[in-house]
Design goal:
Helix content is about 30%, strand content about 30%. By secondary structure, it is an alpha+beta fold. The mean pLDDT is about 85.
């Protein structure tokens, strides 16, 4: 699987569902490759909002999001509260 970065933008605070943007790590063209919803009404619900990735990559990302859901939500809370976030290598 390619190396991806999951990114949350503070300006997304007013969106109605939590989500992460997915970028290819290290590419010069930093176009967003995908967007995944990670909750609905506060409950875990991982869905593809849009994606330019392969089915295999989408499946791997969805598994990584599911496995690391608590950590990702904690970092989103920190982002929206103005608190420094942590990075984590997810395999």
């Amino acid at each position: 699987m390619s190396v991806f970065m999951f990114v949350v933008f503070p300006i997304d605070i007013n969106d109605n569902r939590r989500h992460v943007h997915v970028f290819y790590r290290g590419k010069r063209d930093q176009e967003c490759a995908a967007k995944f919803w990670i909750e609905t009404n506060g409950e875990k619900c991982i869905e593809i909002a849009y994606s330019k990735l392969s089915a295999k990559e989408n499946e791997a990302i969805m598994k990584a999001l599911d496995k690391n859901w608590d950590f990702i939500n904690e970092q989103i809370d920190k982002t929206f509260s103005g608190i420094k976030t942590e990075s984590k290598r997810i395999k």
